[in-house]
Amino acid sequence: DLHKAIRRQRQMCIRDSCLLVGLGYGVIQPMLYEKTTHAALPQKATMALAFVMMMNYLAILLCPFIIDFFQSMLHVKSQQFAFIFNLCIALVATIWAYVKRDSFLFNDKI
Description:
It is a single chain. The chain has helices at 2-39, 45-73, 81-99. It is an all-alpha fold. The mean pLDDT is 87.
């Protein structure tokens, strides 16, 4: 049945997306915390981690408003806009990370 095949394909897409998000939170976020502790003075490491976590939660809070702003500015009514917009941001961040791969943030030898 075609309907069941389409539903199964969508479920697999959702599963794969959840795995990628989990990978991001499970790998990237701990790396960010670890780099933060190295960048800060030892006596200020807790404060630096608090700022990183504050910015993380601020981003979670502001994300819907930012997406809504760009969606209305670009006159887009699609429900997929948020996903495509975040994909574009992720691709730009990936390219930036690749270009800056020898900087402090990404280089463990420094």
